[in-house]
Amino acid sequence: MCQPKHRGVKSRGSGDMSVSEGRVVVTGATRGIGRATAHAILERGGKVIAIGRNADLLEELHRQAPERVRTVAADLGDVEQLSAVADAALAAFEGVDGLVNCAGMARYERVGAIQLESVDAQLRLNLIAPLLLSQIVAEHLRDRGGAIVNVSSTLSERVAPGTSAYAATKAALNAITKAMALELAPTGVRVNAVLPGVVDTDMIRVPRLRPGEAPPVGKELEARVEAQLEALRSRHPIGRLGWPEDVATVIVGLLDHPWQTGSLVTIDGGLSVA
Ligand SMILES: NC(=O)c1ccc[n+]([C@@H]2O[C@H](COP(=O)([O-])OP(=O)(O)OC[C@H]3O[C@@H](n4cnc5c(N)ncnc54)[C@H](OP(=O)(O)O)[C@@H]3O)[C@@H](O)[C@H]2O)c1
Fold first, then answer.
1. Whose alpha carbon is nearest atom 20 of ligand 1?
2. What is the pLDDT of residues 178-229, one digit of tens each?
3. Is 108 known to be catalytic?
4. CATH label of the domain that carries residue 150
5. Catalytic residue among 166, 241, 250, 256, which?
């Protein structure tokens, strides 16, 4: 009978294990979906190399499981530093088994108000950082097996007003996911993407302004954000926004499933079929 070449990853001395029980780099691990993913991996007994800019939040995560969390404080938008960041992540537990590219940013800008600075920032963080980090981690995982998960968005396939640049970065991330999956499959490295609908995190609690509109403050800001959340909620047939944990569960599944690669997996409370 034909035996599979790569099953999970090789743990030192104890046979095969799933990727989420191993050492996983999680970018954007300080908040939202990335933090929930770090928690899900820790709950499964895995180790997390957490990357983000906020040193206090990184330290808070480290305190939760000091033996199984390492942190790398870095601005992933500074693409010249990505190689050094990857080296630090690979050194933290003497190698890694997986990578979750979760750090991201979204700027809501209508046509006419799109700024070069914001397009550049979104391209660097949402596209160049996952591309280059994946390349370095894939070389490390070559022929040992492992997995990469990219956090994309339903907006990559079904756009909304004000999302031209953001949606484009996520559509490109989908293309990278599929191209890398194809190229890396023979090396035992799987690459997948998760496409969440609207998830209740800091990212969506920012008022969406009309061109030239002054940002609201105080009670007006609160009311505006709540109305915005309600409008977003009503578009999800399941009747609520996603929770970071909803997405983290799917990310762990994609890290671990030995026959899954090149997939774009939507999790969106029915948003895409509404
Ligand atoms: N929330 C949604 O509705 C939604 C829907 C679809 C897809 N997504 C995607 O899901 C991912 C996570 O989003 P989220 O909703 O969890 O957002 P979030 O709560 O705003 O968290 C963003 C994370 O990215 C990190 N980050 C931001 N800029 C960074 C930089 N320059 N360098 C390093 N880390 C940086 C932040 O850490 P620091 O602040 O510590 O740097 C934080 O941990 C993103 O890729 C986003 O596009 C979100």
1. 203
2. 999 999 999 999 999 999 999 999 999 999 888 788 989 999 999 999 999 9
3. no
4. 3.40.50.720
5. 166
| CA 5 to centroid of ligand 1, rounded, Å | 35
Tell me how many domains the chain contains.
1
In sequence order, the 6+-apart residues with CB closer than 8 A to the CB of 71 are: 49, 50, 51, 55, 58, 59, 61, 62
Average pLDDT, the chain: 94
Per the structure, the complete domain to which residue 131 belongs is given by 19-202+243-268
pTM, entire model: 0.95
Tell me how far the alpha carbon of residue 112 lies from the centroid of ligand 1, in angstroms: 25
Residue 3 lies in a domain: no
| 24 domain residue, yes or no | yes
Note the pLDDT tens digit of each residue in 223-262. 999 999 999 999 999 999 999 999 999 999 999 999 999 9
Given a contact cutoff of 8 angstroms between Cβ atoms, the answer to whether 254 and 149 are in contact is: yes
User: Which atom of ligand 1 is least distant from the CA of 155?
Assistant: 6
Atom of ligand 1 minimally distant from the CA of 199 = 3
Spacing, Cα 211 to ligand 1 middle (Å): 24
Mutual orientation of helices 164-184 and 116-123 as an angle, nearest 10°?
20
pLDDT at 38 over 50: yes
Q: How far apart are CA 230 and CA 50, in angstroms?
A: 32
